[in-house]
Amino acid sequence: MTSNQPSLLVLAAGMGSRYGGLKQLDPVGPNGETIMDYSIHDAQKAGFSRVVFLIREEIYEIFKEQIGSKYMETIEVSYAFQEKNDLPDGYNCPKNREKPWGTGHAVWSARNELGDSPFAVINADDFYGAETFEALYHQFSDFSSSSSINQLPCAMIGFRLSETISEYGTVSRGICKTEDGFLKNVEEWTGIQGSPIIGINSEGEDGKLSGEELVSMNVWAFPFGVFEFLEKSFVQFLDSLSDPAKEEFYLPFAVDQWIKQEIAQVQVREAKCRWMGVTYKEDKPRVQESIKKLVDEGLYTSPLSIC
């Protein structure tokens, strides 16, 4: 597919091990709406006219029935599958690997559906808010007028760390450093929790965080042509594996490589909306309450209207 119109890639292939089920399909709205329903609604209002759902093939039928079928008449819907055996030529999946290869691999898995089109990326189980999708969509106009001829013009919407942690367990986040509105580097921290906030940095060292750090919640905008560089980064990752059964190829890791290699220039916008997510089942009541408040304030209809 080749198109100047941006597509929305929804990453919905996660295993949900910490959550204990298919949280992508779990209702959180007053009338059974999923977080994805609100994201698609907001994306359509912002101007997106095509969505690609990146899922596991074994959940295709139930996903299409519960999610995809609702939008067939209002937005172009496509599907791509993330499979652990889908690797660049010359590479084979280790026999003892159970899970796919992470968010970078997830985006690469949609290469045939997205082709040469520009696209935005979001997580299926994160609530980002309407203004986030408006900022994402308008970012593609900025791409066409970019003065950075020799670098891929990309963009990221960042969120404050303190607003993205869970009371019920640890989280992993890409901690972002910016300069003059552009991303300088992303460092993956794991085991983030508590107040004061602590975590483990990319060197495996314990550290403290202020909570004011900007983090990646996988809200990205990419131009056409990005898959060539994503595959190169994935190959480098595969060539340097120390734990082939468990290591993951994170999308922010690839973007960080491109910045260091001066392949890409990534504009960063701080989100104006509050992020919400259900990392753990115990997070769900808080998300339900927050969405009900948005409905009561008139920001969403109930039941949610399909644009």
Number of structural domains = 1
CATH topology: Spore Coat Polysaccharide Biosynthesis Protein SpsA, Chain A
> What is the percent of helical residues?
25-40%
Within CATH, the superfamily carries the name Spore Coat Polysaccharide Biosynthesis Protein SpsA, Chain A
Count of discrete alpha- or pi-helical segments spanning 4 or more residues: 8
Q: Tell me the CATH architecture.
A: Alpha-Beta Complex
Beta-strand residue fraction? 25-35%
The CATH C-level class name: Alpha Beta
Shape verdict: globular
Q: What's the end-to-end separation, in Å?
A: 24 Å
What structural class results from the helix and strand content? Answer: alpha/beta
Mean pLDDT: 92
Say how many strands there are: 13
User: Major sheet: size, sense and barrel closure?
Assistant: 11 strands, mixed
Low-confidence stretches: none
The helix-strand sequence is EHEHEHHEEHEEEEEEHHEEH
Could you characterize what this model shows?
The protein contains eight helices and 13 strands. The chain has 307 residues and is of the alpha/beta class. It has a single domain (7-296), classed as Spore Coat Polysaccharide Biosynthesis Protein SpsA, Chain A. The strands form two sheets. Strands 1, 2, 3, 4, 6, 7, 8, 9, 10, 11 and 12 form an eleven-stranded mixed β-sheet that branches. A two-stranded antiparallel sheet has the order 5-13. Strand 1 (7-11), helix 1 (35-46) and strand 2 (50-55) form a beta-alpha-beta unit. It is globular. 39% of the residues are buried.
